[in-house]
Amino acid sequence: xxxxxxxxxxxxxxxxxxxxxxTARATARRASQDGAGTLQIRERGDAARFPITQEALxxxxxxxxxxxxxxxxxxxxxxxxxxxxxxxxLAACLAVTELLDLPQRVAVEAAHRAEVRLHGGLGGVVSILxxxxxxxxxxxxxxxxxxxxxxxxxGFFLGTLDRPLPSPPLLSDPEFLLRVxxxxxxxxxxxxxPPIRWEALLSVFEVFTDELGLAPLPLREPMLxxxxxxxxxxxxxxxxxxxxxxxxxxxxxxxxxAFRQAKLTLRxxxxxREGARRRPxxxxxxxxxxxxx
Length: 293
Hints:
Blueprint: E1 13-30, E2 38-43, E3 46-47, H1 51-58, E4 66-74, H2 84-99, H3 104-117, H4 124-127, E5 133-138, E6 146-150, E7 155-160, H5 167-171, H6 174-188, H7 198-212, H8 217-228, E8 232-235, E9 241-245, H9 249-261, E10 265-270, E11 277-281, E12 284-292
Parallel strand pairs: 2-4
Antiparallel strand pairs: 1-4, 1-5, 1-12, 2-3, 5-6, 7-9, 7-10, 8-9, 11-12
Helix pairs in contact: 1-2, 1-3, 2-3, 6-7
């Protein structure tokens, strides 16, 4: 039975926090009269619609008395299994709560509740609170949930197909969630306590990818080819993006060539040392939130 407290809900699983994510800059001023506040969300200066971010911000107590503008800068594409929705909502909430002099925990809880309520990544906010490799042993925001961390210095590649895979429809489907739960229960137990080895994590990613079978042909072909050539390759969940790692320089050249031949957008990224954080920049609040795969 689901816990009625959204803070105790979420997902179990494992992932990698990235050294790139979302930066949010916020400005706020008192509205001319009580209850006359407004909220404007932008992406690099242009009006934008991010439902999970908006849901999280509007849940902040007292926001209705402020005129708030939040400008987001996504380093990676949205709806590609890179947890940009969680990063964006958390970054925005951290920036706004900094301006309104609210505790950081208020921002974290607002972002987590919005992610669960609107069927976002379900574990994204929890994952990016700190850096490294993360394993969610028990669902929910700590102290309800349990998250284990392994610091790691590691680079790898992302290859993205120019076609998003929105997660809310899948994460609202009970049959799909049952498949995910069954697959997760089989492989999560294979990851022992920290420290987690990089190649053990990649093996779990590959098994999970194959069991869910979500990769379309433009991703499946380069993925299988790279595995045959000695690289490790899996699909990010949930998105049309491949995570790939090469054991040496020759394999890395083959990896880059395969991604380009498949017309995937190539990015080199690293495991992030830090998670979400606030960096006050008067008169604006700024935050950078790193992402989970």
